[in-house]
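Notes, Module 5: Reading structure tokens.

Key idea: the token line is not a picture. It is a compressed description, and you learn to read it the same way you learned to read a sequence, by spotting repeated patterns. We will look at two proteins. The first is printed below with its tokens.
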Amino acid sequence: MCGRTALALDPTDIQSRTGAVRWSNPDSYRSSRNVAPTRYQPVLRKDTENGGQRYLQCMKWGLIPSWTKQLPTYANALQTINARDDRLKEGKSMWSGMKHSKRCVVIAEGFFEWVKKGKERQPYYVQWEDKRLMYFAGLWDRATIDGQHIESYTIITTSSSNALSWLHDRMPAILRSEEEVDKWLDPNTKFTDDIARLIRPTEEGLSWYPVSKFVSKTGNDSVECVTPIELKPEPPTKPNGNIMNFFKKAAPKSTEKTSERSGKSSSPAPKASLQNWLKKEDGSPTKRKRDDDHPREIQPEEDMKAKDEEPESKRSKRDETVEEAGDEVFKDEQLDLLENA
């Protein structure tokens, strides 16, 4: 995924480095070394009336579809900050119309990703080795809500490169040259296989380093967000004792995390809310698959005496259930990188 970027350049510098002939709404831009979803950032588009020249326009991060008649909640807005490349290629998805005529390029100096280290998440900053501007393939749309026009964008993501797979399994689709930028922006070119080939992992030319957890809070914005740090060596792990004590302590802890993340572990409310928000005027919801189900609620363990009295087959089956549920909680933690927002 791509849920945090950095762009702290002066507006005139951005326009000069991107080759844009104009900037339609520069007053909406605010430089930041910690750009979070829902903020306005500059994207590149091509002018269809003046020879296809590039121009800059600030848009809101977190795409709001044109058929929407109400502003999304923050939780729903996070669902459209990225568009997976595999969904983009599907015949029937919410991106179907935009990928042909509403392509844009999102500008950044770099992006952040978090990796789990024990109970903590360590942020890393990724940029080009030569520190040139990054161009992310994106889509945009315009919605009219309460008489106000809102233009917003999403960043397309693809499978992570071999070099960055340890950090996350997804990464933004980065356009590598000026020629690729022009091809992606061309409003007269449909989303063909030739355009689709621009969306692929970036295997070479990137550099990365760990940064302070200061960047994890979206309200923080200073040079500390992108300053390299030296990680302390991890202490040796201690033995967990026997397996029975491990499950006795771990199961209630997993229950707490599950409840803390999803409110009610089996509740479909967030999914229903998103479907209602994306519902079109004709009443039919936009189909959208989810990558992961909500974590299942983990029942507390019985006391040790009762457990010892259980038949071996029943005890083994229950232990497998606890282990499987623990994996679900871990998976959910890896996906939610914006919990400190």
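Here is the second protein, with the sequence above and the tokens below, as before.
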Amino acid sequence: MGNALAREDNSEQSSRTEKGESGEKGESGARGETGLRGDKGAKGDIGPSGKKGETGPRGEQGEMGPTGESGAMGDPGVDGDRGPRGEKGETGARGPRGEKGETGARGERGADGAHAKKGQKGQDGVRGEPGPSGPKGTSKDPQLTVAFSAKMSREVAVLYSNLSGNPPQSLAFDSVITNTRHSYDPEEGHFTCVEEGAYFFSFHVLPRLAMPPLRVKLVKNESPMLVVSSSSSLSESSASSSLSTPLSGSTVLMLKKGDQVWLRAMPSSNGLHVDEFTDCCFTGYRL
């Protein structure tokens, strides 16, 4: 056995020493079985970016998605500039008539109306027959003394029953008692001096109410000479009642020819009153 091995070694050595010519390529052997999968190799480097492709055609519009929930309210925006005024629109058609409402509660009594204006002078009446001659006077002067006295009729007193809301106004005593030298005008209530001298004046009026106060001024050429108020003559007991107290005043004035004197009532919710027991009168004469 050892010899045999020795021979085989010798033949191998001789075959290694002497190489023969290559033989023809043999036929491919049968495919061997798939070997076991090797371990994953390391990640390679990123390759260069490719060229941008062409834009593809626009796709069809998709279906509308469901409505999302309302978002939170944003902060108020800055006020914008005021826009131009629009043109006036056409008048709309008249609406139907509404149903009649219920009758409201009765309102409080309103304030007295404004002072009425004095009416125009009526036509002169028919001249009466001359009266019998009077007895001869005893005056030393060839002319009568300048004097007048007049009272207020009820018709005129009604015009002065409420002086609220009116400017100061002259008081007209329309019913003449005495008027020598025709120095007193019953329509305006003015006395005009026709002879220079000292004159005595007095007046007597009745306020319509005890309160509020009624003020009357004796005026000479727009200047107040005497002011009398009904509040100064009222006691606490009379002021709380509905009864009024007469208001009187008197003074002496030096007048020149052409000077005018009259009574003026100041604005008040009070007014004048005349009844069968009391008159309002204005008197004046030269001393």
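Summary for the second protein:
- The two ends are 200 Å apart (CA to CA).
- Residues 147-286 form a domain with the Jelly Rolls fold (CATH 2.60.120.40).
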